[in-house]
Design a protein that fits this description.
heterodimer; A: 293 residues; mainly alpha; MetI-like fold; two-stranded antiparallel sheet; 13 helices; globular; B: 359 residues; alpha+beta; ten-stranded antiparallel beta sheet; six-stranded mixed beta sheet; 8 helices; 24% helix
Chain lengths: 293, 359
């Protein structure tokens, strides 16, 4: 039996949850409703008049090759960032887990990138990789790589993937390290006695036991890559060149604020919202089941 | 099966902390040896060195005449049972047992056969497809033993395997473990801090204290002839009573701070003057007879049914003494008792070195 708190008055519980509900209503439900509504209209650029068009905005989007391409970019970006982030974070965390001395210092240093604002992270990488004055692109040039993400779309995408991953690794690292430290040492020792080498121990014991962490981070990273990387991409490549780094969020901005097509922009954000809801649903539904051992 | 040999095995941790100091031990093929001692005495470190989980600082470790100091744990032909079971939580009981055999590359049919045999022996057959979290503590520990048995190792290592279980289960599993040893005839090295466990399981007990081996011997030998005061105090429950003093009147009395604490029938012909006399609670008889006699001040009784423990002090001073008498014995309700001990139940130790003095 779980202990429940009981209140003597009827109003107190409402007062306690009130602020939270108010914040959610004002900052989430209201704008969401507004987006849902404007997605059904076509508005003129000055916001003076609008016509109800039903689902036309959505139909247009699904027939728009540029928009569909940005779906592709988004998924590639999302999967690449998630994979890169998790692989590197897990490697770093496994290494850190073995460090006994100066472990705290090592950990603190690895956490720093997370404290950098996304736009700043973008600017850092922008300068590092800048074809004319970046030190990294200078080094790349020295080893024969002609780096110019202003012209080369693949390089631009690679740049934002690296920048976005670099920033997210710290967060993943923290969770992986905590996950690793919660695995009892005796399990690893038992496996060593059971004649499992380090690699085998990792894949048959450690990695399966990290599943809850891995799954949680998978969802978090996908959400991050899809929705939280706007400022980073905006500061680094502005979605270019030729839409090569134009993910769904960047596209919302471009359509709405640059192209001033509010109806289409709203429709895009509704689609994004649907994706978030779907991912959250999957997370809640499976996080307690599939990954439990 | 195999024998095990430790030659001046030493473990020094960084910071110059010596956990085990020059331990010598030979374990014969099929022998059940129990390492026992208080926490921090180095018994677990010694076991972990045998397992290969702890680097050996110096000395040699041989399994079947082969030096295995630098051999990986998986290749030492040992199996270990941990205190917290250390079962792989994401694998079924069957896969837990199969894991080591798979790593050795054994054929599927053989793995299956060995698991079934072990499961039968440990009454685990119906639990083979369960996950460890669906089992009770006792079952989990049996799975851990099963995981060791299927490997058919040369040496079985146990690190306080019963410590996490409740008292009743511990007694049950202790009996099972003993039966298991009789059946497998394996070489067992078993670590515990519980001297009762050590006494009941071991062919030979190794008593450790502060990183050193105090005494090695059969349980009954340790009980009846402890070589040091530490062993005397550690083996037996309730612990042995100690009375300290110097001999007076030509060796017929023991005197402490000017007061007689013990009287002997006749002088014990020993050189030197300071002694620690050890008296087991169960050997102290409330009667006027006996080779050594003392006056006892009773504080309270503890009735355990079969026995009664009488707690108190020496009449002459604050030294605490416990008597263990038959539970059916009716003692007068007196505060002071005369207590006697037979000659063969006296243990004498040097107060400085703690070593046994033979009389």
């Amino acid at each position: 039996m779980q202990k429940r708190v009981t209140f003597n008055t009827k109003t107190l519980p409402y007062l306690l949850v009130g602020p939270q509900i108010a914040v959610t209503l004002v900052f989430f439900f209201w704008p969401s409703w507004q987006a849902l509504e404007s997605a059904l209209y076509i508005e003129d650029a000055f916001g003076l008049s609008r016509d109800f068009v039903g689902l036309r905005n959505f139909r247009d989007l699904l027939n728009d090759d540029v928009y569909l391409a940005s779906f592709g970019v988004s998924f590639f970006f999302g999967i690449a960032v998630t994979f890169l982030t998790m692989a590197l974070a897990l490697a770093l965390a496994s290494a850190a887990n073995r460090v006994l001395r100066a472990a705290t210092a090592y950990r603190t240093m690895l956490i720093w990138p997370y404290a950098v604002a996304p736009a700043l992270a973008g600017v850092i990488w922008y300068f590092l990789m800048n074809p004319s004055l970046g030190i990294a692109s200078y080094w790349l040039d020295a080893v024969g790589v002609d780096w110019n993400h202003y012209v080369n779309g693949d390089q631009a995408l690679l740049l934002v993937i690296i920048a976005a991953s670099w920033k997210q690794i710290s967060y993943n690292f923290l969770f992986f390290l905590a996950g690793l430290q919660s695995i009892p040492q005796s399990l690893i020792e038992a496996a060593a006695i059971d004649r499992a080498g380090p690699m085998r121990r990792f894949w048959t014991i450690i990695f399966p036991l990290l599943t809850p962490t891995t799954f949680f981070l998978l969802v978090v990273n996908l959400v991050y890559a899809f929705f939280d990387t706007f400022s980073l991409i905006h500061a680094t490549t502005q979605g270019g060149p030729a839409n090569a780094t134009s993910t769904l969020v960047v596209k919302v901005y471009q359509t709405g604020f640059v192209g001033q097509d509010y109806g289409s922009s709203a429709a895009q954000s509704v689609i994004l919202m649907a994706i978030v809801i779907a991912m959250t649903f999957v997370q809640f539904r499976y996080i307690d089941r599939r990954v439990n051992y | 099966m195999a024998h095990l040999s430790l030659k001046s095995l030493t473990k020094v941790y960084p910071g110059n902390v010596t956990a085990v100091e020059a331990a010598d031990l030979d374990v014969a093929d099929g022998e059940f040896v129990v390492l026992v001692g208080p926490s921090g005495c180095g018994k677990s470190t010694m076991l972990r060195m045998i397992a290969g989980l702890e680097r050996i600082t110096s000395g040699t470790l041989k399994i079947d005449d082969k030096v295995v100091n630098d051999v990986e744990p998986g290749h030492r032909n040992i199996a270990m049972v941990f205190q917290n079971y250390a079962l792989y939580p994401h694998m079924s009981v069957r896969r837990n047992m199969a894991y080591g055999l798979k790593n050795e590359g054994k054929p599927k049919a053989e793995i299956e056969a060995r698991i079934n045999e072990a499961a039968q022996m440990l009454r685990l057959t119906e639990y083979l497809d369960r996950k460890p979290r669906q089992l009770s503590g006792g079952q989990r520990q049996r799975v851990a033993m099963g995981r060791a048995i299927v490997r058919q190792p040369a040496v079985f290592l146990f690190d306080e395997p019963l410590s996490n279980l409740d008292a009743k289960l511990r007694t049950e599993l202790r009996a099972e473990l003993k039966a298991l040893h009789d059946r497998l005839r394996g070489t067992f090295v078993y670590v515990t801090h519980d001297q009762v466990e050590a006494m009941s399981l071991a062919d030979r007990i190794v008593v450790m204290n502060a990183g050193r081996i105090e005494q090695i011997g059969a349980p009954i030998a340790l009980y009846s002839r402890p070589e040091t005061r530490f062993v005397a105090e550690f083996i037996g429950s309730p612990a042995m009573n100690f009375v300290e003093g110097v001999l007076g009147e030509g060796g017929a009395v023991l005197v402490s701070e000017g007061r007689e604490v013990l009287q002997f029938d006749r002088p014990i012909g020993l050189a030197g003057s300071g002694f620690v006399v050890g008296l087991r609670p169960e050997h102290m008889k409330p009667s006027k007879g006996g080779f050594a006699r003392l006056r006892f001040r009773r504080v309270f009784d503890e009735q355990l049914g079969a026995d009664t423990l009488i707690h108190g002090t020496l009449d002459s001073g604050p030294t605490r003494v416990i008597l263990r008498v038959d539970g059916a014995l009716h003692l007068p309700d007196a505060e002071r008792l005369e207590v006697g001990v037979a000659r063969e139940h006296l243990h004498l130790f040097d107060p400085k070195t703690g070593l046994r003095i033979d009389t």
